[in-house]
Design goal:
InterPro entries: Spore_0_M. This is Sporulation protein. Pfam families: Spo0M. It comes from Psychrobacillus vulpis. The protein is of the alpha+beta class. It has two domains: about 15-135, Immunoglobulin-like, CATH 2.60.40.640; about 140-255, no CATH class. It is about 15% helix and about 50% strand. The strands form three sheets. Strands 2, 4, 5, 6, 8 and 9 form a six-stranded mixed β-sheet that branches. Strands 10-11-12-13-14 form a five-stranded antiparallel β-sheet, covered by helices on one side. The longest helix is centred in the middle third of the chain and has 12 residues, at about 140-150. The relative contact order is 0.14. Mean pLDDT is about 85; it is low at about 1-15 and about 215-230.
Length: about 260
C-alpha cells in the first residue's frame, strides 16, 4: 500500500469504519443490551487495539445564570482484544452488556445513546452513534406510579447538574417534578420533587422536596425565603413495595 494511502488512513480517509447494530431501540434501565459491531476494513490493513462502547446522556448545567446542555458517560465497555483487519475485510463481533440501572430515563429533553469507537494506533478513531430509548427500572417505575396514585401528575423531568452536596458517581441527577391535581394534597402542596440519588435493582436512595402551598402573609414570607420547602432523604427497597403508598403518605404528611 502506498505511503499516500497510509497518510490518508491516519486522518480517517480510506481507513476502517464501524457500525453498531443493537437488538432493539428501547431498553429498561438495568436490562442487558445485545447487538453486534460490524467493522469494515479500508484501503489497507490496520491494527485495531480495541473496540469500546460508551453509554452517554445529556444533562443541563447552569453557569452565570445561563443553561447549557452537557454530555456525560454513564458506562464504558471494552468489547474485544486487539486484532488486525485486512483491506476490504468485514468482521462481525457480537456483544452483550448491561445497561446501568442508573441510566437516566429518556423523558423530556434527556437523550441517551451508545457511542462505538475503534482505537486504532496512529490513526483517527472512527465512531458510530446509536440513540436509544430508556424506560425506568422496575423499582423506579413502581415509585413513580405510587406518586401518581397519590394524586400527583408529572409536570417536568430533567437531568440536571448535581450539586456537590448530593453528587455521587455521576455529575448529574434526574429530577421529577410533580404537581397535586387530586386527592388530599391538592391545595396543600405546590409541588413534589423527587431525585434519584442512587439506584440498584433492589433499592433506591431518594431526595424528596415537599413544597408547601403558601397561606397568608406568613406563608408568602416563608415562600419568599424558601422556608416552605422540606428536603427528605428516603431509602426504598423491594421489601417496601407492598406498603409503598403508605410510606410515601407518612413522609409527605409529616411535612405539610
Amino acid at each position: 500500500m502506498s505511503f499516500f494511502n497510509k497518510v490518508l488512513a491516519s486522518f480517517g480517509i480510506g481507513g476502517a469504519k464501524v457500525d453498531t447494530k443493537l437488538e432493539k431501540s428501547e431498553y429498561i434501565a438495568g436490562e442487558v443490551m445485545r447487538g453486534k459491531v460490524e467493522v469494515y476494513g479500508g484501503n489497507l490493513e490496520q491494527q485495531i487495539d480495541s473496540i469500546y462502547l460508551t453509554v452517554y446522556t445529556t444533562y443541563i448545567r447552569e453557569s452565570d445564570d445561563r443553561k447549557y446542555t452537557d454530555i456525560a458517560p454513564v458506562k464504558k465497555y471494552k468489547v474485544n482484544d486487539p486484532f488486525t483487519i485486512g483491506a476490504n475485510e468485514t468482521k462481525i463481533i457480537p456483544f452483550s452488556i448491561d445497561l446501568p440501572v442508573e441510566t437516566p430515563i429518556t423523558i423530556g429533553n434527556t437523550r441517551v445513546w451508545v457511542s462505538t469507537g475503534l482505537d486504532i494506533k496512529n490513526a483517527a478513531d472512527p465512531e458510530d452513534k446509536d440513540y436509544i430509548g430508556v424506560r425506568p427500572s422496575k423499582l423506579a417505575n413502581q415509585i413513580l406510579e405510587v406518586v401518581e396514585q397519590l394524586g400527583f401528575r408529572l409536570r417536568k423531568a430533567e437531568c440536571e447538574q448535581a450539586s456537590k452536596r448530593i453528587r455521587n458517581q455521576y455529575p448529574f441527577v434526574q429530577e421529577f417534578e410533580f404537581i397535586p391535581t387530586s386527592g388530599v394534597y391538592r391545595g396543600r402542596l405546590d409541588e413534589l420533587e423527587i431525585v434519584f440519588l442512587s439506584q440498584s435493582e433492589q433499592s433506591a436512595e431518594l431526595l424528596i422536596q415537599v413544597d408547601r402551598k403558601a397561606r397568608g402573609f406568613g406563608g408568602f414570607l416563608a415562600e419568599a425565603l424558601e422556608m416552605d420547602e422540606s428536603h427528605i432523604r428516603l431509602s426504598i427497597t423491594t421489601q417496601d413495595l407492598p406498603y409503598l403508598q403508605e410510606k410515601f403518605n407518612q413522609v409527605i404528611s409529616k411535612h405539610l
